Batch of 2 targets.
Target 1
Amino acid sequence: MLLVSNQAAGRRGLDTGLPMTRILIVDDQAAFRRQFRQLLALAGVSVLEAQDIAEAEMLVRATSLDLAVVDLMMPGVNGLEGVTRLKRLAPTLRVILISAFRDHTDLFRTAARQAGAETFIAKDDLDLDVVRGWQSAETRAPR
Amino acid sequence: MTAREHLARLSLLALTLAVLAVIGLVIVAQWRAVTLDCELDPQTGIIRAVPQDSLCNFAGAQPGDVVVRVDGVPFAEWKNPDAENHLFEIRRADDTLVLEMPFTPYALVNLPALLSALLVTLTYWGVGAFALGRRPRQFQVRLFFLLLQSAALGLVFFLAYPQSTYRPAWMEIASVLGLHFAGALVLHYYLTFPVMLGAPRQRRAILGLVYGLMLVSLAVRLGLGEWGVRVSFLYNTAEIVAALLVQLYAYARRATPDGRRRLRLVIFGNLATAIPPLFFYLIPAILGSTERMPGWLVGLWLIIAPLCYFAAMARHNVFGIDRLLNRTIVYAILSFGILLLYLGPFLLVYRFAPNDWLAQVWLAAGLTLLVGLSFEWTRARVQRGVDRFFYGGWYDYPGVVETISGALAHCIERAQWVEVLTRRVPALMLLREGKVSAGETPPVAGELAVPLTFQNTIRATWVVGARRDGEEFGAEDHRILTTLARQAETALGNILLVETLREQLAEIRASRETLTQAQHQLLRSREDERARLARDLHDGPIQDLVGLNMQLGLLLADLPNHPDQAGTLQAMRGEVRALLGELRQVCVDLRPPMLDTLGLGAALRAHAEEWSAQTGVAVDLASPPDATLRALPSEVAVNLYRVAQEVLANIARHAHARHVAIRLARDETRLTVTIRDDGCGFDVPANFDELATQGHFGLVGLRERVMLIGGVCVVESAPNAGTTVQIAVPV
């Protein structure tokens, strides 16, 4: 599934004052992708969606992305393995691992970092501030 | 062999040699003693009887003459006679006359008595020694041996010296001792043979009485002269009668049919031996009248009993000792035949061609070849002939029963049993091959069908092949086959029981296997179900709540200027998050998400941390890098995780531990999980199944899980020494 939705951000007229970012959501749950895309749109981010790692790999190859947000619990290749694969395809791509679970986040964060992700964050902690944080980190990060 | 047994054997051997030595002594003594060839009292010099054809009669001696001097020396003082003529000064009535008479060796004068004594004594000695040689350990045989040797010692002097005046005093005593002892032994022997009669205590009491009476009678005999003789004869008579009665009682009431068959000859022999001397010798002697039977005839008569015993041993296997005799006779006949075979032709060659060495060599070679080729054939024929004599039949039937009974007793397989009945019995009984068929089968001509029953049902039919010599089965054959069939039925009973037991065991094994499978299936489906539930929760309600939370977040971001609504939304969001937290916990309990993402190592670490926080027990966990454990099959990972959970739960419940060490180690073939605590420990039973009976159900369930993934589980523990559970799983 491929959907570019930066018009939404324009329509809502939300000016983040930050440069437009292209983010890929990798999650098997369509409802979550839709809701998360709304959140990201508010942050003025251009969003791509993939329902599994294979699709994500295709998008990473085809387009230029700034950030991939990957769900941990997916059927088939899980998020941790997915991070490794995406980083192998695009070493400069920033990846963030998310999950509906939040116990032992330290363990997940360590594992995520070992796999090459920037961090691990529980899905219920995702909000505009977090997304903006990613954006500002991006501006700070050397390209 | 014990020292006592050694001593017993030595004594018996010594006795055998002693009796032989006494017999030799009697011969030498009689040969060296010289006497007139008439009946002369060596004490008084009275000539009691003068045989018609004796030298004394020729010289003119008469019964009643008294020898006064010999060669001028008084008879009482005269010594050192030699076998020459001597001058005897004889007093006849009132006259004194001198006769010239020769001395002769006593053995020659007494030859008939000596020979009959030797015959009787050697028979007693020989039969006793033969029985002892075959069955040296059997108690009854030892008694029998002692009885015969005592009788031999008692009889040898008595018979060898018909005139008591020639018998030295010590011989008289030895004779009396031997006969008295034999009398007591007869009774003792028949109280134990063919069956032990009475209880041990009763037997001891009776034997005490018997031997006590023997001693009394002995004392009376040696102390009271004429009356003593009568009393001792009375004692001997009573004892012989008692022994005969005991034997008849045992025969009629207590012996087995086979025992009776064997005993018949012995009883006949004993009655035939005892009755004439009893009526014609002992009873008259007791009553004080003259004996109606001469002493030598009594002696010869007494030979019947041991000879009957010998025949019974040979023919009816009394004491089970016919086999040696049988084989000995066969080989004696064969040896004699070979000797004749060689001797005849060689004598001819010597007669007609004494110097022809070549002919002799050819003859020897030819005869040797002939003997070699025909030996086995001849031996079989001679054996059959001897068997015919021994057993009245055409095979060695006690041997058949013994061999087949032994073979059947060892059968626990049907095939072995059939082999014994269809191969071994025909081979031993010289029959054509037989067969065993299920149920009832009619026999073919010449064959014999024996139904074999167990618990009143015919289980098989033993079809016995026809006799190889073409004859019909005789009564003896029927009897022996019936005996064997009973043995075969007993063996068949055992085999059927073993077969039933085996079937039951197989059923138990199968049902146990099914049970294990079902248990494993249950464990698997339970895990599957839990995983499915967890996934449904994750994909459904949890995602919905995550979405709701996010929507609320977005709404809150849109309403920065409406504090009332924002407050309501914030509260809603709090509830959503709380609900989310609860659902997550349910999910984690059902199936820890970490297990399927971070792997067993991380999942165990997370669980150990939580457990440690709850229980306050310190936990050390050592494991290889998490990534190396992520590739484990999900079934292995989840079951090991559950096992560790169970062990930690057990420790929390029972161990009172302060410290727990968990160690995961992986090599190329297996993964090992070791959980060691320093708690109170317990006694581990040798058999794992006993854990359930001791109430350690957790450990039993744990083993089931480990078995499900093909692993092994070892529990080591001791009171106050902590517990170590080690699980190894192939990977």
Target 2
Amino acid sequence: MNGSVDADVDAAVSAAFRDEWGRVVATLIGMTGDWDLAEDCAQEAFAQALKSWPAEGIPRRPGGWLTTVARNRALDRLRRNAVEATKLRDVVVLATAGAGSEQAETIPDDRLQLMFTCCHPALPLEARVALTLRTLAGLSTAEIARAFLVTEATMAKRLVRAKQKIRDAGIPYRVPPVEVLPSRLTGLMAVLYLLFNEGYTFSGAEQVRQNLCAEAIRLARVLAALMPAEPEPTGLLALMLFHDARKPSRVDAEGELVTLEEQDRSRWDAAVIAEANDHLRRALAHGRVGPYQLQAAIAGSHCHAARVEDTDWASIARLYAHLSKVMPTPVVELNRAVAVAMADGPEAGLAIVESIAAGGALAGYHLLAATRADLLRRLGRFAEAAVAYREALSLTTSEAEGKYLRRRLGEVVHPGRSRSS
Amino acid sequence: MRYMLLHHGDENLALSPEEDAQVQHQLAMWIEEMVGRGVIVHGDRLRPTAETTSVRVRDEEIVVFDGPFAETKEQMGGYDIIEVASLDEAIEVASKHPVARLGTVEVRAFWPL
């Protein structure tokens, strides 16, 4: 055994962990119905891979190898505990499933069942997020705790309770039937997008939080591949990729948020944008437009403008108007206001913002105050803009955004000192 | 699995005679469907909370007081015990009960023996 073999094996196990963890766990839950057993045996299978692969070589189908090892571990454990009649039944099921399943093709892909179960609406939202990261993405309890700024003990308790509820309240392990599929799929995609946004709107350089973006994209990829008849998961994947392509230019060296108009577009990832375009085109070809496809089209439109002044604001404003119909929320309206302000002038945008503010639904939302402030500044109404910037500052929790707002506040309080737009 | 559906609603909700007749009709249809599917184990309606009596024993003293355990906006007015395959089926059964439109149906699994 030499160093390079070890390095190859390490790389192969890491790759297998990324690609296969969720599948191994999902399959084991499907076979045993026992979530803890499934996680433990998956963990043991990966540990075994680190021991066996250097000598035996990396298997042709790592996923099949890992699933077989994990299944055999589960079988051993259940046999040892098979005093109860119910457990004996599991052993029979497992042993039957074992026949001839060395080939990866014959192992069912249960990840879709696992995704829908993790994101069941009977679970609290924070538990859905945590379960998805633990069982599908393979993040450790400690990593998830760090990403969501809670102690490891709190996160462990959250996961235990969620698994308890799945078992004791009878949450089924299945893809929902067609009558409830649209609403459940919406809920599932919302969890994945929330995960992505948790990573995207990170404050500071916490690596574990940034990794959430990559995990969310990976899971969206799996979902889109497993539900090819549904356009929205592919739309969601395209949306995430468009955002991700712009990520390197979103925060400058000092950690300050760089707005879309000020971003260095040469740093956007052209390959990722091209991939997102392909996904979006495929989704739109279904002819069933939904919120994620529309949001992806908007994000894509920004990505296609080589310079900020090339942005097709009129078409973006139209897309937002469409989005506002299928997803009539004040936040969408607020974004439409920004697009309209760019297409038809700040006055037109401000009119929409004021009507949202009058509605009261977004009271206390920092981006409402920040958007209002920016529009007032562009109209040269500096005194009112200063009040709005101060309000936004008192409401934001993001350090990067705070820096941006303080700089803009400085510009309207001392208009002579800076000439940036 | 066995679940209890607890029907919570505003017991002072004033329905017009037509609305009341419609709710009674929906309820009859629901019972017919669920009995037909073999879902309902047992179910009943409760007298209003104005007629509730609560009992506690403290220091070996029986304390009796009138009124419900907790004053809430929605009161429990009835229940059904159902036997279904999973929480998803329990949700489906609950969503078809007329109280789901007027108030809230709470779905609780039984403690397994």
